[in-house]
UniProtKB/TrEMBL annotation:
This is Deubiquitinase. It comes from the Bacteria. Residues 24-274 form the EAL domain.
Length: 281
């Protein structure tokens, strides 16, 4: 009898398991095809400098618009691309695209490119960055590479070497999503980061009166002491902006200024925030 039950439940679960596996397989097939066809877009979100009161750069954010699936979030497809080993070609494509695009911007505006942990530890990252800079003729100091805390924990020794090699090319390195990972404050001191990006979860609760503002104040202070630029992510309200300004945060980024937009919309954004005449003069 128990045999029958076991078989029955097995049969019951089988089609469901199958459906999930098949859906995942189809997702992988679509993603592979999209990478092979370069079926992606890069959108750009302004990073606003509070001291200069103007846009100082843009973060490149990958977009996948599938004919049937519609917009697929990078939060969904980046982990799959990492598992399939597709993140290296995909990451190199974004890097090249973003550097190329940045050469069209006025005033030495910078471009920030996200680097996944898998791509960071792949042997080819430093070469890919060098190639992208050479091929596009973009000055190294205009490129910022955003890295999350997870890469530090995995292999601190290798990380330091890679960061130094990237900096030899003139590129800047930023610690992305700071405060969400497992790394301790002492990690920041041990690595040559130029910038700390305060995760949007802290900015969201900045006005909640639950102590978050003290954490943000501490991180901004830490950045100042370590001579690192501090950038707040996910700024959506004037109240958040006012607090960040008062705390001495260097840069802000979020929907309050602009959502990430296609490259074609950048001239208007730059004209709006930096003034068309100032940009040309
Ligand atoms: P991230 O690097 O921390 O990027 C910031 C995310 O916050 C972006 O989401 C951006 O659209 C969103 N954002 C910006 N301002 C606001 C705001 O005011 N409010 C809210 N709620 N969100 C805001 P997105 O584009 O969906 O990207 C999510 C994550 O996917 C990124 O987080 C990054 O980790 C990853 N990602 C995106 N593009 C790439 C890429 O080219 N390569 C790699 N390796 N990862 C990427
Ligand atoms: Mg980022
Ligand atoms: Mg971030
Ligand atoms: Mg994030």
């Amino acid at each position: 009898r128990s045999k029958v039950d076991a078989r029955g439940s097995f049969r019951f679960f089988e089609p469901e398991m199958d459906a999930r596996l098949q859906a995942r397989r189809l997702f992988e097939v679509d993603l592979r095809e999209a990478v092979a066809n370069e079926d992606f877009e890069v959108h750009y979100q302004p990073i606003y400098c509070l001291n200069a009161e103007r846009i100082c750069g843009f973060e490149a954010l990958l977009r996948w618009n599938h004919p049937v699936r519609g917009r697929v979030s990078p939060v969904e497809f980046i982990p799959v691309a990492e598992e399939l080993g597709l993140i290296v070609p995909l990451g190199e494509w974004v890097l090249r695209r973003a550097c190329e695009e940045a050469t069209r911007w006025p005033d030495g505006l910078k471009v920030a490119v996200n680097v996944s942990a898998v791509q960071f530890t792949s042997a080819s990252l430093v070469t890919a960055v060098r190639d992208a800079l050479q091929a596009t003729n973009l000055a190294g100091h205009r490129l910022e590479l955003e890295i999350t805390e997870s890469v530090l924990v995995a292999n601190p020794g290798a990380t330091t070497a890679i960061l130094h090699n990237l900096k030899m090319l003139g590129a800047r390195v930023s610690m992305d999503d700071f405060g969400t990972g497992y790394s301790s404050l002492s990690y920041l001191r041990s690595f040559p980061f130029d910038k700390i990006k305060i995760d949007q979860s802290f900015v969201r609760d900045l006005c909640a009166e639950d102590g978050t503002e003290f954490i943000v104040r501490a991180v901004i202070g830490l950045g100042a002491s370590l001579r690192m630029t501090t950038t707040a992510e996910g700024v959506e309200t004037e109240a958040q902006l006012a607090k960040l300004r008062a705390e001495g945060c260097d840069e802000v980024q979020g929907y309050l200024f602009s959502r990430p937009v296609p490259a074609a919309e950048l001239p208007d954004l730059i004209a709006h925030w930096n003034g068309a005449k100032r940009a040309i003069a």
